[in-house]
Amino acid sequence: MNFSVTEENHIKAIFHLQQGEGTVSTNDLAAELHTKAASVTDMLKKLKAKKLLSYERYKGVRLSVEGKKLALAIVRKHRLWEYFLVDTLQFGWDEVHEVAEELEHISSKKLVEKLDAFLGYPKFDPHGDPIPDSHGKMAVQQQVNLIDLAINKTAEVSAVGSQSTELLELLKHKNIGIGTRLEIKKKFSFDHSIEIKIKNQNAFTISQQLAQVLFVKII
Amino acid sequence: MNFSVTEENHIKAIFHLQQGEGTVSTNDLAAELHTKAASVTDMLKKLKAKKLLSYERYKGVRLSVEGKKLALAIVRKHRLWEYFLVDTLQFGWDEVHEVAEELEHISSKKLVEKLDAFLGYPKFDPHGDPIPDSHGKMAVQQQVNLIDLAINKTAEVSAVGSQSTELLELLKHKNIGIGTRLEIKKKFSFDHSIEIKIKNQNAFTISQQLAQVLFVKII
DNA sequence: ATTTATTTTTAGACAAATCTAAATTTATTT
DNA sequence: AAATAAATTTAGATTTGTCTAAAAATAAAT
Question: CA–C1' span, A19 to C8, in Å?
Answer without folding.
Answer: 22
